[in-house]
Amino acid sequence: MRMPGKKIDEGTRQKVRDAYARGLSMRAIAKELGIGSSSVDRIVKEDHSHSGRGLTPDREKRIQELERRISDLEKKILELKAKRKFWKR
Length: 89
Prior knowledge:
By secondary structure, this protein is mostly helical. It has 4 helices and no strands.
């Protein structure tokens, strides 16, 4: 564990960015790199404060894909409910 108040070098900061871009949780990154989770949180927020949701492009893409899948599943559910109503008559 690092001592409080110690500066985090640029190499470690880049490792935080890379790990976050790969989808690791902030807690896992902190444990892996031996730094505090608040430091990881601060580095991620500093680097992504310019984007709308504060997400990396990879994470934004994954969210969009999941939102699309959810929308497709909602449509299928509505179709199945409509079919069930039709056959219950």
